[in-house]
Amino acid sequence: MPIPIINSIASWVLKQRIHQIELFLKYPNEVQEELLMNLIRRAENTVIGAQYDFSSITSYTTFSERVPVATYEDLQPLIERTRQGEQNVFWDAPIKWFAKSSGTTNAKSKFIPVSNDALEDCHYKGSKDLLCLYLNNNEDSDMFLGKSLRLGGSSQIYEDKETLFGDLSAILIENMPIWAEFSSTPSNKISLMSEWETKLTAIINETKNENVTSFAGVPSWLLVLMNKVLEETGKGNLFEIWPNLEVYFHGGVNFEPYREQYQKILPKSDFKYYEIYNASEGFFAIQDLNNSSDLLLMLDYGIFYEFIPMDTFGTPDQKIIRLADVELFKNYALVITTNSGLWRYLIGDTVRFTSLKPYRIRVTGRTKHHINVFGEELMVENTDQAIAKACQLTQTEVVDYTVAPVFMKEKEKGAHEWMIEFKKNPTDIGAFQKILDQTLQSLNSDYEAKRYNNMTLNPLIINIARKDLFYDWLKERDKLGGQHKIPRLSNQRDYLEQLKSMQFQTI
Questions:
Q1: pLDDT score for 404
Q2: Whole-angstrom distance between the N-terminal and C-terminal Cα of the chain?
Q3: What separation in angstroms does the CA of 503 have from each of 419, 465, 492, 496?
Q4: Strands 359-366 and 397-406
Q5: Mind spelling out the 3-state secondary structure of 374-430?
């Protein structure tokens, strides 16, 4: 079938979805309420359904009173039973796929269940909706005339008893519909390679002569690939290799610290950036407007959303609210109930709403990845924005960073200690430090109060990392590629001390 015809068919199919999206835009709370009841009905005869007597639950109030909020550790015994081959434990359909997620704060792997319902009605639906919303906003797009260059994780699929596990990206590639495989590059064989550095070379060799019209992948790792492509081809920018490039679909980490670096290698003002918010547990939100970082919360993917205000999170006063009760610009911990059988699962991400009609969010960080040693409540969103501004004003570029507290000793005040790897070092590190500190104060009033007259916090400390320090840390722990990254913020010094110990060694 000629590619222009495929382009036309794809565009038509995807645009039909707009009408369904309009339904949950108009009736968001009703759609969510109905979805929750459908999930409960599905799981009535499961082990967890019997435990909480799902058959008698007819309202959100009863559900919230009866079913506790759960962490992975709480659900692990039930998940392990399913991994051993038992079915009908927490979902009524067989579950054979598990997304292995190492979780950066914990060496122990998590195995997140992925049902066929979640594959079709959440993950793949999200991918199709991303294209749908993009095409709806850019009707002259020729994206389907070429291929999408995708950079996924570095895990193969492994079999254990009757079940299979691997990176979510590997599971999605393994189950990918033919139409998606046809329109993607590199091949599945290369995409599923485990060894990161060999994989990079193979991707470049296979894709450099393709008509690539879009990218998809985590900004930090895709940047590594793109810089290597330019190095190997000797080209000045990516349009010299792929002249028909028009959009980059990204997620996984905040894009702001990388924006300037991408603009240098993609020097066209009309090139589009579209953000998504997905994880092993589900596909949650999509950028639905050109030139906006706000993400539309997708409400008909088999996921019911609840929220814990961060000002009460982890305290005896902790409260859980549903979508109808959220407020603008407050930080919330995200709680999800899914069509893979995760019931009131605390995913570990924090979000804030930028719009309530429709519901749009921004991801602000992780419940575990913030610094609140001195009452400063510093979020990743704050540090990413401050880094981006400091880079812009000092004409520098940052590869990666992490921050940890300097604990108070005797009469000595506390501080925040940074490890920053620059692609291009600032000419005046003192000026960079000052801009960074002042920007953080302007973004976060709690931090500003603690920094006032050095009352609680001394000025921040910056260590300039050697070249490839963060890469080597990840390589040493077999965490190259995919979603892996060092946490940006931590209440402990473990990551920082590990990096400092590697500062003068080469691998």
A1: 93
A2: 50
A3: 10, 7, 19, 10
A4: unpaired
A5: CCCCECHHHHHHHHHHHHHHHCCEEEEEEEEEECCECCECEEEEEEEEEEECCCCHH
Q: Can you read off the two tokens belonging to residue 221?
A: 């790792």
Strand partners of residue 336: 305, 345
In a domain? residue 474: yes
Query: Amino acid identity of 19?
Result: H
Task: Identify the weakest region by mean pLDDT among 128-142, 347-361, 492-506.
Answer: 492-506
Query: Of 6-15, 91-100, 408-417, where does mean pLDDT reach its minimum?
Result: 6-15
Residues in the chain: 507
Q: Whose structure tokens read 């009841």?
A: 37
Question: Which residue in the block uniquely carries the two structure tokens 């920094």?
Answer: 451
Question: For residue 240, what are its two tokens?
Answer: 């010299």
Are 236 and 126 in a shared domain?
Answer: yes
Domain final residue, candidates 242, 258, 287: 287
> Rounded to 5 degrees, what are φ and ψ at 476?
-60, -30
Residue pair 63/36 in contact by the 8 Å Cβ criterion: yes
Return d(Cα 20, Cα 291) in angstroms, integer: 24
**CA angle (404 as vertex; 400, 405 as ends), nearest 5:** 155
Is pTM beyond 0.70? Reply is yes
